[in-house]
Amino acid sequence: MQMNEPDALLRATRRIGPVILDLKNISLSFGGVKALTDISFDVRQHEIRAIIGPNGAGKSSMLNVINGVYRPQQGAIIHKGQQRKGMDCYGAAKSGIARTFQNIALFKGMTVLDNIMTGRNLKMKSNFLMQALYWGPARREEIAHRVKAEEIIDFLEIQAIRKTPVGRLPYGLQKRVELGRALAAEPEILLLDEPMAGMNVEEKQDMCRFILDVNDQFGTTIVLIEHDMGVVMDISDRVVVLDYGKKIGDGTPDEVRSNQDVINAYLGTH
Amino acid sequence: MDTATAAAPPPYLSVNNIEVIYDHVILVLKGVSLQVPQGKIVALLGANGAGKSTTLKTISTLLRGERGDVTKGEVQFKGERVDQLTPNELVKRGLSQVMEGRHCFGHLTIEENLLTGAYTRNLGRAELKESLDKVYHYFPRLKERRASQAGYTSGGEQQMCAIGRALMAKPSMILLDEPSMGIAPQIVDEIFGIVKDLNHKENVSFLLAEQNTNVALRYADFGYILENGRVVMEGEATELANNEDVKEFYLGMSGAGRKSFRDMKFYRRRKRWLA
Amino acid sequence: QTEQFIALPSYRVGPYAAGGSGFYGGIIDYFNLVNANGGINGTKISWEECETEYNPSRGIECYERLKTKNGGATLVEPLSTGIAYGILDRVAKDKVPMTTLGYGRSDAANGKVFPYVFPLITSYWNQAAAMIKYLGDKNGGMAKLKGKKIVHLYHDSAFGKEPLPVLEELAKQHGFELIKIAVAPPGSEQQSQWLQIRQANPDHVILWGWGVMNSVAIKTAQRNGFPREKMLGVWWAGSEEDTIASGDAAKGYTSMTFNTPGNYPLLDELRKKVYAAGKGNLADQSRIGSVYHMRGVTAGILYAEAIRHAQEKFGKGKVMTGDQIRWGLENMDIDEARQKALGALGMFPPVKTTCDDHEGSGAVKVQQWDGKKWVAITPNWVVGDKALTRKLVEESSAKYAAEKGITPACAK
Amino acid sequence: MNISFFFEVLIGGLLSGVMYALVAIGFVLIYKASGVFNFAQGAMVFFAALTCVGLMDKFGFSLWLAIPATVVAMIILGLLIERVVLRPLVNQPEITLFMATIGLAFFIEGLAQLMWGSQVHRLELPIEDVPLQFLLDKFNIIVSQFDVTAAMVCGVMVLVLSLVFSKTKVGRALRAVADDHQAALAVGIPLQRIWGILWAVAGMVALVAGLLWGARNGVQFALTFIALKALPVLILGGFTSVPGAIVGGLIIGASEKLAEVYIGPMVGGGIEGWFPYVLALLFLLVRPEGLFGEKIIRRI
Amino acid sequence: MFYREAGQFKTSYQADGQIFPIRQDRLALGATLIVAVVALPLLASPYMLSAILIPFLIFALAALGLNILTGYAGQLSLGTAAFMAVGAFASYNFILRIPGIPVLLAFVLGGLCAAMVGIAFGLPSLRIRGFYLAASTLATQFFVVWCLTKIGWLTNYSSSGVITAQKMEILGYAFDTPARKYLLVLFVVAIMALLAKNMVRSNVGRSWMAIRDMDVAAEVIGFRPLRTKLMAFAVSSFYCGVAGALYAFAYLGTVEPEAYNLDLSFRILFMIIIGGVGSILGSFLGSAFIVLLPVFLNILAHGLGLPTSVASNLELMVFGALIIFFLIVEPHGLARLWQIGKEKLRLWPFPH
Ligand SMILES: Nc1ncnc2c1ncn2[C@@H]1O[C@H](COP(=O)(O)OP(=O)(O)OP(=O)(O)O)[C@@H](O)[C@H]1O
Ligand SMILES: Nc1ncnc2c1ncn2[C@@H]1O[C@H](COP(=O)(O)OP(=O)(O)OP(=O)(O)O)[C@@H](O)[C@H]1O
Ligand SMILES: [Mg+2]
Ligand SMILES: [Mg+2]
């Protein structure tokens, strides 16, 4: 049951806002390895933007550039109209960018609930002494955030494991918790690095639903890396295609799907 | 659940009614039995947390390192009980595992990673080179990155490295835990192509835990479906692929064929065979 | 309660085990001898050891555990400055006398402030004074020390710094140059210190060391060609354990001691009555009469004598209380005649204690390692400037009394 | 400043540094194989030296008989450690393994003294610890014959071990093990055997260190402390590098002696205890993995 | 069957956020507190109080401090004793130089001094990790002890460097008997344990654990690594400093650098590893284990009538062997063993 085109367009245009993140001529290399060469693309508010490409194309590196883990040797990042200078990942987090990682980067020794609560840390105001006393405002704040965290737990349907240390969880659930942690920050831009790896179709369906819901309900802009073409083509508004660190395609899923370069480099023929 | 028919070849690997407990208290496998006949590809399917990885780790006896205990049952490989062996002895007997979550040696280069895979084989220089070339032939991307430390390669490259490393041991039976994870689609096909290839040409048997049910069932001969630490269904791969329930829950196809991910309106429409 | 119970928080493992096993072995050997001879007027001595590992925290636990055992400990000897400090207040409160033979607080000699602490025979300050006296004599009179260079090579800790006030004062008085060189504990590397010493080319080196530092010092001196005869160790640097490890390098090395090396009738008696009966405490009989062992035997004698003396006042054959033993320790008088009767004439200096003087002697000897054993090289006991040390004791104990709110007075 | 004195200090320091390196190598072996800092190395040095002199003193062995006998003892000890302590702890956090080695240190210390008593022993090697005469005559510089011999022994050891690690597949396997126990097992590296062998080799290295240090300082409990001298050497050179141990040793040895002689007097002396650590720390600020250690990979 | 949470429902997040969510645990804690505050001072022998309970509590506090740094924030440290020494010497000097200062205030100030030293020595942790950091913390250990030996002012120019701790007085009330000292220590330790629990269950604690588990990810989420680590160093050193002051004032009675040697650092480290890294309860269990085990072994060895030198060495061997044994049985320490025990109890009498 493919949604018919006009409908999708209509919805998309209603939703999508101005450019929120503009990446200009980004180049990044590690020693001799050129991870990204002169890449430009933009991300619009409220859109779901996918990045695809073969292994080692530079997708994860791109995300790392966006949220300040790597600093590109060249190029500019314009976030909400302002050029970003010398920003580290803390700064990126502060400006409302959250993300998940390809190799799960959960805090292994902590419970699911605590992991999700860490996502809210930038919103916590009470100081250290108050927290030590666990008194008055600090406690109220803690509980208020707990409520938020529980909302996310409900949303992701992981109630049963909220007190389990994440290290013990199976891979798929860990991915979900990681998404929860990113969501907990209530980010403006959410960067997802292969959120659906290691899931079966049913779980992917659920995951897609989460992503779409977040996008709908909170208006979060989403940048997504995924190798499952079904998912990418179905849920993203626009797709960037990278290969060997270069951009070889950019456009709506349909445009990308019919781009010959992309087919050669990545999609193959089926 | 006795499925062994008289016609079936004797199981190459057989897991008999194993029960596994983590940390002394967390019961994960509740009596899992399965067989892999020689020269066959068997798929192990199931949702997140069903116990696929645990089953594979039990077979390769890597469980001990994670504080898991096999409290019941036994594992036989080539007619020999192997649950008390060390992983090294198993590799020597021809059973290799590709672990979930890549597990490359971060400080070693890709090539060194691959070479460690041949540790048990005591190869001469030429043979080693030949084996390496074979892996590079399968994964040209690895050849490009051979001199980089594995810790600095991309997720997919690491996954290829992990698979290539297991191939270097020239096993007669491979346990593959989610080989397609994080791999670009055309490489996924390639990986399964390799599986098929090895299976055909070198009679290597496979047990693969895979989320990509679609592909897995396409290549496998036989499948088991695991849920909550129990085998809930098993059968010929084609049979499973045509089973309505499997279609709906694992292949994402309802009566009307494939549905767009965008159109899924509800969560958890999951039906369970067991509570 | 029929036995006189004594607490021995000892250490037989760890870096100082060699000293600990010799010292406590000596005490126990002597106690066994006393018991074999029928006890003190019929009262047997009993004791219990408790492993402290030379660690103050464990030492305190040992003391607290032992002090109430078997009707209560009536004497304690920790052989560790750290532990001694840790139980200093406690012994006064519990009325259990503590002896600190040749270590611990030098100012505890003042019994008016420290009624229950007995740094018997001699303290660090008197030792330092005696060292300078000896060096003066060696150079032909104190006046000859003028212009001489003396290196104080010390364990960089409270222990090593303890004699500084005395040495500094004497350096001023006699006009010698005092060069202080610290060795970082434990002292297993001293190359740089000895290079400095070689550079300074001193007339004497005082080795204020402990444990491995001593053997390393001797070895390193050899390596740097510094004559061992010019080295004078403290009594914690003057045992077989310190020289044996240095091998031939130790030949000629001198050190202080308050036990004259040699064989004594008492030691033969120990061999005959204790070791022959299989009750000897030392695993290796060749260690009988070694410095640490003799120091332990000396301690044993002093305890037994104090008990005997106390019994004379408070009732023969009775078990003494801690306080009574304190009296015994405080009014001890072991002269040469008594030593002779014990078969230990000259083994340690005569001891005569009073309330003012819990030390009772302050006399020491100098011994030299001849490659196989220690040989005393001063025929007489050497005593330093006791007036000076007394002054320091008074000052320091007065400060302590003020801090602790103690009114100095002799215990009754 | 007296230049020949300066050189004397420098050379003395370099030679002491070699002695530290001797101990440090033992640590490197174990760290390479398991990613764990082996706290028991000092105890092993003590155990080895004490066993060797114990055999000589108690049973009248000659030195040349006692040494091979001790080698055998160290091999047995190494294999036992692997079997009893390490095997059940595969894939545990580093800190747990570290702690286990601390327990092991206690055990070995107790065992050594139980077997051979707590006395101090002397150990005479047929190498004299006296200044080399021609250097003394010519340059008035003191260099001990013993130290020079020790340096040569150490050099040979470093050479052999580095070759083994860089040229054989065992070397590669070790690095793999240190990265990920579980994966190493999965590819069939016989972790148990490798650990057993490595602990046995570490035991032999401990014997060499124990003999040389024991001859220098006497065989006594304090031998266990020389681990503290080896630590800054290790972090400076890098935990995983055998040549690093020797370079680190030279740097630490020379600079600590120079510091003690030239800075010490200004601040009251006795700075050798902490100076090497502070120096190593400063190095680490520039290179957090030590001079030759493997770069720490931090990537997400 | 009795240890069940069935039927206990939490109706608010506040209730769920309690330290002990299960009623039986709360009852047990209440009972423990009553025993500790009322029964023990009355009934326990002075030996029990002054040689076992007081050091147990003090070491538990130090272990708690180290656990915050190593267990929660993941920075392995071997310099605990140094921070304890700073606390002790600072408290001594505050009492000496500010007449009439309440002793508790002096302890707090001593702790703050330790915290400052902790921050200074924590700075390298931004770059240095793991065993490299652990080895570098030895710099703290040796340097601090060296300073205390060298700088005369700190020891009030005492010739030997050993100083006696002043009396502990609060508003003229002297804490001089074992029972009183015990109560004072108990009070301090209980309060600080509670504060520590609060910290680790709120955002500070989460920031520490995040840094410990994966520092890069923590930064991406918005924790500042340097601040978080330094905070952990500060809080940890504060705890150690107070513990050090108590160790000097309520236990040893003296303040001397030697008492704070490397050995002590290691003992505290054993405590947290045996007890449980990253567990408040574990600090207490570990302290009990390390304080009691040698005593127990010592008594046992004497009971067996072994020659003392044999007994002492056997003691050491058994101690080492037991450490290894416990690590093999449960690498996460006694606290985890306890937890598993409870989980089994919950299931009991059913096997799973
Ligand atoms: N080390 C461990 N300690 C405790 N519990 C564990 C551990 N490893 C796995 N588990 C539990 O065992 C169950 C099965 O996990 P397993 O990893 O085998 O699942 P899986 O089928 O491989 O899932 P996925 O598809 O997500 O990889 C899960 O519920 C998990 O929580
Ligand atoms: N920190 C780094 N140091 C060195 N090389 C790096 C680093 N990070 C990435 N690379 C290299 O840059 C290239 C791009 O890596 P990246 O992780 O971005 O790929 P990717 O597109 O995410 O691939 P995959 O789909 O396999 O995850 C790879 O070849 C990788 O080896
Ligand atoms: Mg990637
Ligand atoms: Mg899995």
Automatic annotation (TrEMBL), chain A:
Coiled coil regions in record: none
InterPro entries (alphabetical): AAA+_ATPase, ABC_AA/LPS_Transport, ABC_transporter-like_ATP-bd, BCA_ABC_TP_C, P-loop_NTPase
GO cellular component: plasma membrane
Keyword annotations: ATP-binding, Cell membrane, Membrane, Nucleotide-binding, Transport
All residue ranges annotated as the ABC transporter domain in the record: 21-269
Organism: Pseudoduganella aquatica
CDD domains membership: ABC_Mj1267_LivG_branched
Name the record gives this protein: ATP-binding cassette domain-containing protein
PANTHER family xrefs: ABC TRANSPORTER ATP-BINDING PROTEIN, CONSERVED COMPONENT OF ABC TRANSPORTER FOR NATURAL AMINO ACIDS-RELATED
One function term, GO molecular function aspect: ATP binding
Transmembrane regions listed in the UniProt entry: none
Any Pfam family the entry gives: ABC_tran
UniProtKB/TrEMBL annotation, chain B:
UniProt signal peptide: none
Entry's Gene Ontology molecular function annotations: ATP binding; ATP hydrolysis activity; branched-chain amino acid transmembrane transporter activity
UniProt keywords, alphabetically: Amino-acid transport, ATP-binding, Cell membrane, Membrane, Nucleotide-binding, Transport
Any GO BP annotation: L-amino acid transport
InterPro entries the UniProt entry points to: AAA+_ATPase, ABC_transporter-like_ATP-bd, BCAA_Transport_ATP-bd_LivF, P-loop_NTPase
PANTHER family: ABC TRANSPORTER SUBSTRATE-BINDING PROTEIN (PTHR43820:SF8), HIGH-AFFINITY BRANCHED-CHAIN AMINO ACID TRANSPORT ATP-BINDING PROTEIN LIVF (PTHR43820)
Protein name as annotated: ATP-binding cassette domain-containing protein
Classification lineage: Bacteria, Pseudomonadati, Pseudomonadota, Betaproteobacteria, Burkholderiales
Automatic annotation (TrEMBL), chain D:
GO molecular function, one term: transmembrane transporter activity
Pfam families, per the entry: BPD_transp_2
GO biological process: amino acid transport
Superkingdom of origin: Bacteria
CDD domains cross-referenced by the UniProt entry: TM_PBP1_LivH_like (cd06582)
Keyword Membrane: yes
Membrane topology category: Multi-pass membrane protein
Keyword Cell membrane: yes
TM regions (residue ranges): 6-29, 36-56, 62-85, 97-116, 141-165, 194-213, 233-254, 261-286
Swiss-Prot/TrEMBL keywords: Amino-acid transport, Cell membrane, Membrane, Transmembrane, Transmembrane helix, Transport
InterPro entries with a match to the protein in the record: ABC_transp_permease, BCAA_transport_permease
GO terms under cellular component: plasma membrane
Family annotation (PANTHER family): ABC TRANSPORTER PERMEASE PROTEIN, BRANCHED-CHAIN AMINO ACID TRANSPORT SYSTEM PERMEASE PROTEIN LIVH
Name by which UniProt lists this protein: Branched-chain amino acid ABC transporter permease
Annotated organism of origin: Pseudoduganella aquatica
TrEMBL record, chain E:
InterPro entries: ABC_transp_permease, LivM-like
CDD domains on file: TM_PBP1_LivM_like
Stored Pfam families: BPD_transp_2
Molecular function as annotated in GO: branched-chain amino acid transmembrane transporter activity
Transmembrane segments: 27-44, 50-69, 76-95, 101-123, 130-153, 182-200, 230-252, 264-282, 289-310, 316-338
Membrane topology note: Multi-pass membrane protein
Record's subcellular location: Cell membrane
GO cellular component terms, semicolon-separated: plasma membrane
Keyword vocabulary terms for this entry: Cell membrane, Membrane, Transmembrane, Transmembrane helix
Descriptive protein name: Branched-chain amino acid ABC transporter permease
